[in-house]
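We both want to read discrete structure tokens more fluently, so let's practise on a single case. Would you write everything just below, so we can both look at the same thing?
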Amino acid sequence: MEQKAVFLNNVAEFIQKLSAVDQAKVVANVTMMRERDFVSVRIKQLDGPIYELIVRQYRFVFFRKEETIYFVGAFRKKSAKTPLREIQNARTIFKNI
């Protein structure tokens, strides 16, 4: 059974601004995750239940709760470290869901 994917508005808007090629890559990665294929996608654990999906130079902060994957942050990677505000924001949303 597929998992559900929920995108916060800021993440959906970020994806819409990407090129068609990059949008397709994001969709393909999310589809694999929804089908529970977490081996074929690049994922990095950030903090406890908070992870990031890596698609080219873009990062999508997410967590899983029950049968749903929540994408709560998105940004273009410019430095070696994930911005702390992205992790803190994801942690706050995780606690409130």
